[in-house]
């Protein structure tokens, strides 16, 4: 169809049949970002992975899922085109290298705007939705000062601090949303979201037409954290989404920073707690720039060009499956610990875990941990 062909005329786009196969695979129930990545590493293409899926699921003890059909993938592609957006697939040259470092990096993103913003020094700014007026004003000014230094502000287009950060950053901002690329949320930010799509960069992981749900926001938060060299939290209650973003940033090896608040303000408890636990105290934009741009570039623990990698999964025997499965339980355990205790090759352990996940028997957790469902 013409709309589908036009979509893939963009630079660094993959072939149309491969794009269709990748969409079919990632939109299939039980296929997550980690299993998608491992399937491609094992079988080379999404089409080959789809063919192998029934056998893998049966080995994992599950029912074979209905793979998303070609027509559904074509309809999604047409909707993306109508929204004025385009796809960005993991493994293509334009995919942001910082985001590609995640073991659960989104296999496909939908974007509108200037993708080059994701290649510059990036700072995530997050905080309370019910933020105080003083903190919103501070966030707006801080974002403007950060962009004056040539950096880019990343946030989630939520009410409060996120909105203030986007407004202060102007055209040097990346908005990551929890719903589809064509869905504005919250509704009062529809104009801001449209401006970011036109003048800056708008990013979505969910298919077009998806209304954001509570379960989508942690997925959005991991993208915000991973796209950025550091995350700044401005006002956050305990157990808030902003603290989840900060935790994900720390787990990804990024800088975690926080603006202190008055001890009597409940909205300051999260930030003060982060600082107590080791986050960098931030008062000015210069404090932030100092953290993301060390004087000696060798001081950076990780290289932004070093992607996440794991050995391609290898076929496992029945004995191997029993050995790994017997080590699993309802309590999350690190994959490296499973490798150590099973005395199996990492690639074999990865294959057993992949089969269990496809069979609906394995749940993946943060920091590379897994458990039986």
Automatic annotation (TrEMBL):
Similarity comment: Belongs to the DprA/Smf family.
Domain DprA winged helix: 310-368
NCBIfam families: dprA
Domain Smf/DprA SLOG stretches: 87-292
Protein's recorded name: DNA protecting protein DprA
Transmembrane domains' residue ranges: none
Gene3D superfamilies: 3.40.50.450, Winged helix-like DNA-binding domain superfamily/Winged helix DNA-binding domain
GO terms under biological process: DNA-mediated transformation
Domain of life, per lineage: Bacteria
